[in-house]
Amino acid sequence: MSNEIPVIGVLALQGAVQPHKAHIEAAGAEFRAVKTLAQCEEVDGFILPGGESTTQLKLINRFEMWDGLAEQFAKKPVWGICAGSILLAEKVTNPEQKSFGILPVTIQRNGYGRQIDSHYAVIEGYNVSFIRAPIITGVYGDAEIIAEHDGTPVWVKKGSKMATTFHPELTMDTPSPMHQRFVDLVSERA
Ligand code: GLN
Hints:
By secondary structure, the chain is α/β, with parallel strands linked by helices. The chain has helices spanning 20-26, 37-41, 53-62, 66-75, 83-88, 177-189, and strands at 7-11, 30-34, 45-48, 78-81, 89-93, 103-108, 118-123, 126-131, 135-139, 144-149, 152-158, 161-164. It has one domain (7-189): 3-Layer(aba) Sandwich (Rossmann fold). The strands form 3 sheets. The protein has a 7-stranded mixed beta sheet with strand order 2-1-3-4-12-11-10. A 3-stranded mixed beta sheet has the order 5-6-9. It is globular and about 45 Å long. Bound molecules: glutamine (GLN). Residues 50-53, 82-83, 86, 109-110, 131-132 line the site of glutamine. Residues 50-53, 82-83, 86, 109-110, 131-132 line the site of glutamine (GLN).
């Protein structure tokens, strides 16, 4: 990408895509909603947005994007948010489902149960939303835990891959520290 600003592709098959735009731009990068493998090849890093991981999986399979995405994710920074973090995990429980397995964590879908399945919290001084969020129940190898909430990891990172089980993009105070960290990560490598 040379002297241009990094381009962050938000996978736009399903879920909360557009709210990332203001954060990405405020963090000094270009936002692009990506729907095809050709578009994926043009970006410097990916955000897998929150939404419904089962629906996202179905669409990835229907559009025959699995292998192409796996190839892209292996070579560029990726940040999975909520459903996106489920897609990145090495192992998914409640129930088990297919995932790209690029972050050495075990993640339990809908881990907070029904009563408190959606709530706000402050992570690293920033207001975020947990929306039918998963819980990271295991972190392995050299993955680092950046933040915890209620005694469980909610923001983890390994090299250029990271995951948050919460949504920072719905808070309109831009950029969120998580977007800034991700854009910095992409800028370093681009
Ligand atoms: N409960 C959803 C799932 O299991 C994730 C919710 C979200 O992304 N906010 O895929």
